[in-house]
Each structure stands twice: as C-alpha cells, then as structure tokens.
Amino acid sequence: MKKILYLLMTTVLCFTFTNCSDDDWSDGDPAMEHIYYVGFEKWFTKTANDISYSVKEQITIPISIQYYSERLRSYDVATYYYVSSEGLSLGSDYQVVDDKGAVVQPDSKGAFRLEWPQSKKGVQVVYVKTINAKHIYDESKLDFTGMTEKEKQDAIAKEKERIRQLNSFKVLTFDPGAGAISHPDNIVNSKTNDYEVRSFTQNYFQTVFISK
C-alpha cells in the first residue's frame, strides 16, 4: 500500500513540474502585471502542437484562438496569428476568410490581427479555407530497382507522406519567420509600451492537410 501511495504522489509531482516549467506566470509578481498569453483553445492531445485537420479541397475550417487575461484594462490588446506552408501558396492553395467567407489579407509582415478590447479574456474564431492540393502522388517517379517488397512498400509510404506534408499549411500564433520558438527567449506574440503577449510554446500551431 505504501509503495502504491508513493508512486501516485511521484506521478502527481512530475505532472505538476512538467506543466509549470513551460510558460508559467505568477499572479503575485508585479513584473508580470501586464503580461498576457495567447494560444489555441483546442489543446494538444498527446504531444505538443499535434492538433491537425485532414480535409478535402474547398472546405472552410473554424479555428478558435484563446486570449488569457484576468483584468480589464484602459487599453486594448492586439494579438497576431499567421499561416505558413512550405509546399502551398496563400491565395491560390488556401485562404484566410471571415465568418461570411470574404477573404482576409495579412499585413505587410504576413500577420493577421485580432483585437481584444480592454484586454478582456476570451475566444475568437478564425477561418481558413482549403482551395487546392496541388502536389500529386506519382508512383511512376519512384525507382524500385533492386528493392525487396518491404523496401518498395516503405518507399511508397515515404513518398505519400512527403506529398501529404507538401499539401499542408500551418496556422500559428507565432511568426514562422522569427526563428525557433523557445521559452523564455523567443515567445513574444505582441508587445507595446503597455503590454506584452506571449505564445504558449506547446500550443502555438495547428496543421491543415488538404487532399483531393
């Protein structure tokens, strides 16, 4: 019985330390008084940033972004989200739209802006629309010379996954061009003389996969 209780206590303590070590803040610290957090409302399931959507072309996906704040302020807060892809192009392969389907354009830095009046906590829904899965799997481009059947199937699976990744884009609460996100050095989403908003390092992007 003592051994069971010890194991339970150890598990709880490990869970607590794991969750508090990244992106933690203290309500009693004056230095944190005007620091806020933003992340996706839908949290990761097993590993960080593992929420994804696998959809066909011409599908609009609602994605909820949550702003964390416990006080009303005299100022409004702006946060930003981004869309990024290595294989697809914004505008021709996917779009950001509003709740009526009208196209939303990013600013000159590639950011899409959300306003939080009086720094009031809440959730806002953004919408992304899939247009075109332009990368096509073509088995004729694979060379199976000298391969065993297992090696052949592995090569096919690898190529299909490569095409799947190319037909994807990410929605992020962190600028994809700002370098690797890491706590505490590189986590700022938005910053002014009045406030700073930080992105959660374990919940700063979701991935959309497009198929024909």
Description:
The protein is built from two helices and eleven strands; from the N terminus they run H-E-E-E-E-E-E-E-H-E-E-E-E. The protein has about 210 residues and is α+β, with helices and mostly antiparallel strands.
Q: Mean of residue pLDDT?
A: 88
Give the oligomeric state of the chains in this entry, treating copies of one chain as homo and distinct chains as hetero. single chain
Instruction: Quickly count the helices.
Output: 2
Share of residues in helices: 10-25%
Features:
six-stranded mixed sheet; single chain; 212 residues; alpha+beta; 2 helices; five-stranded mixed sheet
Structure summarized in a few sentences:
With 212 residues, this protein is α+β, with helices and mostly antiparallel strands. It has helices spanning 2-20, 149-166; strands at 35-40, 52-56, 60-68, 77-84, 94-97, 112-116, 122-130, 168-172, 188-191, 196-199, 205-211.
Which helices and strands occur, and which strands form pairs?
Blueprint: H1 2-20, E1 35-40, E2 52-56, E3 60-68, E4 77-84, E5 94-97, E6 112-116, E7 122-130, H2 149-166, E8 168-172, E9 188-191, E10 196-199, E11 205-211
